[in-house]
Amino acid sequence: MSEQKTQSRDPGVELSSPQQEQHGGLPAVVVEAPPRLQRRWRPRVVLIALLLLIAAGAGIGWSWWQHHQKHLPTGIASGNGRLESDEIDIDTKFAGRIAKLFVDEGDIVAAGQVIAVMDTLWRG
Questions:
Q1: Which of 18, 60, 94, 110 is the one with CA 20 to 30 A from 36?
Q2: Measured between alpha carbons, how far apart are the two ends of the chain, in Å?
């Protein structure tokens, strides 16, 4: 007797032939394929790719933010705080009008620096 095997609709599952069932009176033998190993690396790769994508997006965002900040000119600083100053009154020896002014309001001056020239010949 030749033993014939038939394929089922499921891959990897073999059924015994109907002739064997008739002769032996035994039910059909179902031989299943060994269980397929699950791919566990795929979720890890997806997670790593997602983390790299998030890190790249954060790096690009930080770089964009840094380049689009308003920058102060060299020598100028900014900050929060309180400034205190002393007001100084300037008196002249002679009465007159200012003929030429060499500094603007808020400029830093040194001791002995010429700030203005007076026209002392003016008679008002």
A1: 18
A2: 143
